[in-house]
Prior knowledge:
alpha/beta, eight-stranded mixed β-sheet
Amino acid sequence: MPAYDPPDSLLDSWFADLEKWDRESIDGATVSVRTVHYGDHQDQVADVWQPVGNATGRVVVSIHGGFFAEEYKREIHTPLSRALACRGFTVWNVEYRRAAPGHGGFRETTDDIRRAVTFAAASESSRVALVGHSAGGYLAEWASALEPVDLVVTLAAVTDLEDSARSGDDDGAVSTWLRASPDHSPEIYKASRLRRKWPTGARHVMLHGTHDQTVPATQSRRYAAAALTAGEDVTLTVLAETGHYAFIDPRQPAFQCVVHALAP
């Protein structure tokens, strides 16, 4: 199966196919799932996936992408969450407030991620690893300085909001989420820079694909280089012939890199 990205016109079909495969692969004796609320808002929920029996892996907080848009929900990480739980991890697949017509902007979304991470860590009596894809990778890096976090694994992460907004790769989603363009409110973009979170004290594993048509691998390369210079513990792996979505598809070889990165 190719690891390249589907064309935009077929992306919905790609997600539907992944959902169908995941649904048909369900093994009820292997994992369990329950939904918990970490706040009062309807979007402040998480699906908690657990192995049946003793968990052997880390506690993982999964943060989905979608450029902060309301239409993308945590269900796109259901296959990833189930697959990790089948491998012994306890996975909190979190939802959060997203941009218009939803209820989230920068403050609401980042507050939700902070609350979800601390709630998961307290519930599991454990430090946690964060796994974030695309815009979820930005949120994972944003939360990497929180005390319960000891590992951050980013998958094709957005690490430069201004670059995404100016390039147009986001189709205007970042400006919608931040409620301003870089030219109109440069101070907002300056405040959103992830390097303001350094030092974090966490270990960072960054994964990106050479054929990513949504978030260019140059974002991860620049971010990793700057983080290393600042003294952060960062490793970056760029996978050849791999697109944006392969990391969240358990059928793809790229997903095994995610599993390897989370290994204790």
